[in-house]
Give the backbone structure.
Amino acid sequence: MNVMMLLEMASAAFPERPAFTDGSNGASFTYQQLFDAARQRAESIRGSGAQRLVKLDVSNLGTPLSLFASAWAGVPYVPLNYRLTDAEIQALLTRVTPAYLVTDDARLGSLGAVADVQAVSTGSFLEDSNHPGATDAAWAMDPEEVAVLLFTSGTTGAPQAAVLRHKHLVSYILGSGEFAGASEEDVALVCVPPYHIAGIAAIMSSVYSGRHVVQLPNFTAEAWIELARKHKVSTAFVVPTMLARIVETLEAEGAEDSGLPHLASFSYGGGKMPLSVIEKAMTLFPNTDFSNAYGLTETSSTICVLGPEEHRKAAAASSEAERRRLVSVGQPLPGVEIEIRDEDGQQVPAGERGEIYVRGEQVSGEYEGRGSVTDGEGWFPTRDAGSMDADGYLFLEGRADDVIVRGGENLSPGEIEDVVLTHPAVADVAVVGVPSEQWGEAVAAAVVAKAGATIDIADIQAFVKERLRSSRVPELVQIWPELPYNETGKLLRRVVRTELAAAVS
């Protein structure tokens, strides 16, 4: 059992069918070309002595090639977030050496100087002439081999490397799709980042089904619509923020529909979908099947789906309970079990809030250097909060921990707090997520000034922006005389969140 199995099956079944097209320049792979290139690059990776293949670039042809070449070479695939600062990237890179790094030209020099890193540009990696050899060696079929290491942020700000073995990823693909299920005319538009589990899953599921994938390296609603129309896209996956922007742009066109008659299915996930957005989208795409997919890195992607028929039934329902299901994430996939538990680990009745636990063959729940966090019966604590109704529909209700999910991106409050605390006028700070129509959650901060100091809110925001990415800048900042703590010195983050959320309601 190896991820390469998926590509081998596809290349044998439809070798000349288009596999991937870079939407920015039109370059493409057929399934046979991708298979042959993966074999050749596997030899380069093995010859380097690297134990990991690291991909640091936007989505392009180098992305599927890196994934499958690393699987053939028998080393884990490690996609890194190219939006991180240079210091953050170098810190992560040093944790996965010795590494074979595929990156953009701008970072080639600096990152190539990191010890035990052999760096090549994406262009060089894609050029056949730079890889003269091709391995005859078969790939390992041990399902326990590590296929992917995917860094994910935690509440402390220290990224953890989630371990996904071949058995987890292949189990997910085999259980969620049909081999060769796509026709020659089916085209998928992929715009989720390559370092996101949804991006990895999109590659594997599309290959298994035999679908042609068009890649959008950098999302804008205008670019997405242009590519969708140009390539007659039939299926797409977006996060809620992307869908909201697509809807806004289409509405601005003034047309009664989307102008995308070929779009047969539209999947979304990665955050809470505002009811107003999905209702508008279903109006603009009346003949399109909508699906809401919920999953995590540690579960190899999707574990719960609200399918097309459930969308239509909920949208047309007269009862509030049934209509509410339109903002649920649906029911568990076959082979996946979900429970809602309280703080004592006991399963709660239908409708009650608790932490979401999941179990199934696709569930890893393992971190490098930490091991598995599943219990003795294989249950993984997701740290997501939610509830299930009597019919098994799952409703997300934020995070059981303190991670802020903004536009499908997990943000660590601890990381932002550490920066704010370095401001000379700040004595204390608490960062939380608050409801946002646009982002699902927005970053908010309660800040305590040092004695005799005066805090300027705009200055705090600029201070964070200079040191972190703009997505981490608090949209709401309030000056508090003190933060709430309990008797043991633990911050009452829930109190902070409630008060700050009231300010935006």
Observations:
- The domain at 404-504 is CATH 3.30.300.30 (GMP Synthetase; Chain A, domain 3).
- The CA atoms of residues 416 and 486 lie 22 Å apart.
- The longest helix spans residues 31-48.
- The chain has a mean pLDDT of 91.
